[in-house]
């Protein structure tokens, strides 16, 4: 992996983990995280060529933006049910699986060397 690809991958995986595991996520944190992620992707696109193998990482950039939009347009109800542990474990394991695929795809299917 190239340097900006690696930096973007690490940041997006940490951001995804924060979005999933943190209980109280301020909207400012979501905006700052998505802004940094978008800037990293733009720098990566300008300094290094964007590759199709990085599509899962590019999609991870949209997660905080979608979370912010959902919070903005659909106000949470006052009474919240406690999320079940099975659901939390399932969501966390799917995020880990997605992160493994996102990291493995550029490594396994790397760019051709000219």
Mean pLDDT across all residues, rounded? 82
Number of strands: 0
The helix/strand series, from N terminus to C terminus, equals HHHHH
- Low-confidence regions: none
Indicate the structural class: mainly alpha
Radius of gyration: 16 Å
| Largest pleated sheet | none
Query: What general outline do the C-alpha atoms trace?
Result: globular
Strand fraction equals under 5%
Distance between the termini: 16 Å
Give the total of domains. Answer: 1
What does this molecule look like?
This protein is an all-alpha fold and 114 residues long. The chain has one domain. It is 72% helix and 0% strand. The chain is built from five helices and no strands. The longest helix has 24 residues. It is globular. The mean pLDDT is 82.
Characterize this entry briefly.
By secondary structure, this protein is mainly alpha-helical.
Question: Any descriptors?
Answer:
single chain; mainly alpha; 5 helices; 72% helix
Note the topology.
Layout: H1 3-21, H2 27-47, H3 55-60, H4 62-73, H5 85-108
């Amino acid at each position: 992996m190239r340097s900006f690809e690696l930096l973007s991958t690490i940041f997006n995986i940490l951001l995804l983990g924060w979005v999933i595991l943190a209980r109280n996520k301020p909207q400012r944190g979501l905006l700052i995280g998505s802004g940094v992620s978008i800037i990293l992707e733009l720098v990566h696109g300008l300094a290094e060529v964007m590759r199709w193998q990085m599509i899962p990482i590019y999609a991870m950039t949209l997660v905080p933006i979608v979370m912010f939009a959902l919070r903005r347009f659909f106000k949470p109800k006052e009474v919240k049910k406690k999320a079940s542990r099975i659901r939390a474990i399932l969501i966390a394991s799917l995020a880990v699986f997605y992160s493994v695929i996102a990291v493995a795809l550029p490594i396994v299917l790397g760019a051709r060397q000219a």
